[in-house]
Inverse folding.
């Protein structure tokens, strides 16, 4: 009897584990036309229907697009409900479609946010790629708008004013949450490029979840691909025309401003019930996007609040530099509007300021009603005020464009080691009100080494430096400004504070010790209050249960020169394990030649290229161990926790605390300046200030503590003893006897 199985529909050869006993062509024909399933026998004698695909039992189809299909499924090994996405049969051999799957996986590897749908697993079975995602119980924002449940514009009959306001608040809260998720993606170097209601899922509690990063652009890949594949209509249009920014529709370079535009288009549809531009054909729609101005929402619904309309139209500005500088700035302006505070989308004149104040202080507003006659004069001057406002808006937009382009050009220039950003430019990027420092200003520089996304990183640091300027000014009784310098991590190990190129620098603990050796005059001034844990783990089937059993196995470290990898080697040395006793050990991020050891002196070490994002390197370690490329790995515990569903395969061998980052002052800096900086930073204690600190780190920084060089003596001892023992195989006592 032949072992060859045949499709029960068309009799073509199929593998033994074929889903439903069907070939892929027939399977997706059923997905296309579910009614045909009743006409297809997919049941073997005496058994229930075979609905398995890899580790998943498929349920109903919950989504389908031009290139893929999504099923509700159960991950059998974990009894977990998931959404399983696969490529349609017609596109399985398409390199571009497969690339979209790869991009979606790469983007998801960078993201960890409560309003972004996480991807659990990426794989391929019998040539069919698949993505396993968290299942969101709810429906798409597209359907909720269509049925009028999340739309201000009424579907039947006029609405009372209070109902319109209530719906506007719901809309503002939802878009604010989505914008914060988009900002998180931007901070990790990911542009979504296909933001639309269909890609936003709303759960039963009304929380939005952003999904489908198949058209995402990884910012660190931008220079090589910006102009290689311009957007077109014929079959490969990158995005959805009604929600695409003008520059995206024209095939020009896209930045975070493009996603801000798309958020505005979604907001517009939630306000009016229709996207800002929609024509009979995609080509006509794109022409409208590039050539026409969107109608004011209030022209379609008179009761639309003018401020939320202003926020929406600012996002939809044809000039990318005139939009919000970040998705976070959009979210913050929406939050201001929900609190009846003046918005930042335009300068707030006396009339609007009074109206906002009245909304928050109804009793007080009644007491001063008699003064309303004075507004007549203000109305007379309003025309002149509006003209001045437009001139200021144009000047700010031009300034913002100049700053953003300047930073990006410097960052992409391979001959430049850093991108300098003046304090005034930093405030323009973050939409902060600039100070007029006047004469006799104390100008300082703050440096940080980063991997990517300089504009997004600058926006993260801007509020902190702006806040510190004010606090130090109060302490020193003279104006203080902080310029920011973003140094490229890829340009090598040398620290700018060692070269006296900056006044203050944020760096890791191990980096500080090495920098102190190179420049004894620098000083540690602050330590971040941050609990950060790391783990060493192994694959369970190998039978490794203790660190001493790691001998003879393959170990993957995230970084060569990080404090975390250093401490992992210390713990291995304490367990009696040295580098020479490992069959292989590798650093999955760039190798820093400043640190002797693995890459240069140990033939069993093999560096494997660069990874631009720290999180990507950590996640690469877990995946390398799961794939069997390595047996043991070390990463931050928060990344390991993301793989807790794999705990059946992974075993934690040890955990340890990782010292937080340190802020270092350059040699020769005035003690008065250093003390003022310490006082300003350690005084950040309010909830708003802590929220500002949280943006600097995925784990929340609770504040700062005064640091001294003695705080790092224990780590220096580890370098002389355990770390050296791991690298050389010689015990500290033996070295002493020599």
């Amino acid at each position: 009897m032949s072992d060859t199985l045949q499709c029960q529909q068309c009799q073509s050869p199929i593998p033994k584990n074929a889903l439903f006993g069907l070939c892929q062509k027939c399977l997706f024909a059923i997905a296309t036309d579910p009614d045909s399933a009743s006409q297809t026998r997919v049941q073997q004698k005496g058994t229930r229907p075979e609905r398995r695909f890899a580790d998943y039992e498929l349920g109903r189809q919950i989504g389908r697009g031009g290139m893929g299909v999504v099923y509700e499924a159960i991950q059998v090994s974990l009894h977990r409900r998931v959404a399983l996405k696969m490529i349609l049969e017609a596109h399985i051999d398409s390199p571009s479609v497969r690339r979209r799957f790869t991009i979606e996986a790469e983007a998801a590897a960078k993201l960890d946010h409560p309003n972004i749908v996480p991807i659990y697993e990426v794989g391929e079975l019998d040539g069919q790629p698949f993505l396993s995602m968290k299942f969101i119980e709810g429906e798409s924002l597209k359907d909720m708008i269509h049925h009028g449940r999340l739309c201000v514009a009424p579907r039947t009959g006029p609405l009372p004013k209070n109902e319109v306001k209530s719906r506007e608040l719901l809309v503002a809260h939802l878009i604010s949450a989505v914008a914060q998720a988009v900002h998180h993606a931007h901070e990790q170097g990911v542009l979504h490029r296909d933001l639309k209601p269909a890609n936003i899922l709303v759960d039963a509690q009304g929380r939005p979840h952003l999904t489908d990063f198949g058209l995402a652009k990884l910012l660190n890949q931008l220079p090589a691909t910006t102009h290689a594949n311009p957007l077109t209509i014929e079959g490969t249009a990158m995005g959805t025309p009604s929600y695409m920014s003008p520059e995206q529709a024209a095939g020009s370079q896209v930045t975070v401003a493009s996603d801000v535009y798309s958020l505005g288009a979604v907001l517009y549809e939630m306000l009016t019930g229709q996207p800002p531009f929609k024509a009979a054909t995609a080509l006509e729609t794109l022409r409208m996007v590039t050539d026409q101005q969107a109608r004011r929402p209030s022209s379609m619904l008179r009761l639309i609040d003018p401020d939320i309309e202003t926020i929406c139209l600012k996002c939809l500005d044809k000039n990318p530099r005139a939009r919000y500088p970040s998705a976070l700035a959009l979210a913050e302006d929406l939050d201001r509007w929900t609190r009846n505070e003046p918005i930042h989308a335009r300068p707030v004149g006396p009339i609007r300021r009074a109206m906002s104040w009245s909304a928050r202080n109804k009793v007080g507003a009644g007491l001063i009603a008699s003064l309303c006659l004075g507004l007549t004069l203000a109305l007379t001057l309003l025309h002149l005020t509006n003209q001045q406002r437009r001139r200021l808006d144009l000047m700010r937009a031009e300034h913002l464009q100049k700053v953003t382009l300047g930073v990006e050009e410097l960052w992409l220039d391979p001959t430049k080691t850093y991108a300098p950003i003046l304090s005034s430019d930093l405030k323009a990027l973050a939409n902060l009100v600039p100070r007029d420092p006047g004469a006799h200003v104390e100008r300082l520089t703050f440096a940080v080494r980063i991997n990517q996304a300089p504009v997004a990183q600058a926006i993260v640091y801007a509020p902190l430096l702006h806040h510190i300027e004010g606090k130090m000014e109060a302490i020193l009784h003279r104006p203080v400004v902080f310029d920011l310098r973003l140094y490229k991590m890829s340009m090598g190990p040398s620290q700018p504070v060692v070269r006296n190129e900056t006044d203050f620098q944020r760096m890791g603990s191990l980096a500080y010790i090495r920098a102190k050796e190179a420049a004894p005059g620098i000083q540690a001034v602050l330590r971040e209050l941050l609990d950060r844990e790391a783990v060493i783990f192994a694959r369970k089937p190998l039978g490794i249960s203790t660190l001493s059993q790691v001998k003879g196995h393959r170990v993957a470290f995230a970084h060569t020169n990080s404090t975390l990898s250093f401490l992992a080697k210390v713990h291995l040395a304490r367990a009696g394990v040295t580098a020479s006793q490992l069959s292989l050990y590798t650093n999955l991020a760039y190798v820093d030649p400043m640190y002797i050891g693995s890459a240069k002196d140990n033939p069993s070490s093999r560096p494997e290229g660069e990874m631009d994002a720290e999180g990507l390197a950590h996640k690469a370690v877990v995946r390398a161990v799961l794939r069997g490329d390595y047996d043991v790995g070390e990463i931050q515990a928060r990344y390991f926790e993301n793989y807790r569903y794999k705990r059946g395969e992974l075993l934690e061998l040890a955990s340890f605390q990782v010292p937080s980052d340190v802020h270092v002052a350059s040699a020769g800096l005035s003690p008065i300046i250093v003390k003022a900086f310490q006082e300003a930073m350690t005084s950040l204690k309010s909830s708003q200030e802590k929220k500002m600190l949280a943006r600097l780190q995925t784990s929340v920084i609770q504040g700062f503590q005064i640091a001294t060089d003695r705080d790092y003596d224990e780590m220096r001892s580890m370098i002389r003893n355990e770390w050296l023992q791991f690298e050389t195989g010689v015990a500290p006592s033996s070295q002493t006897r020599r």
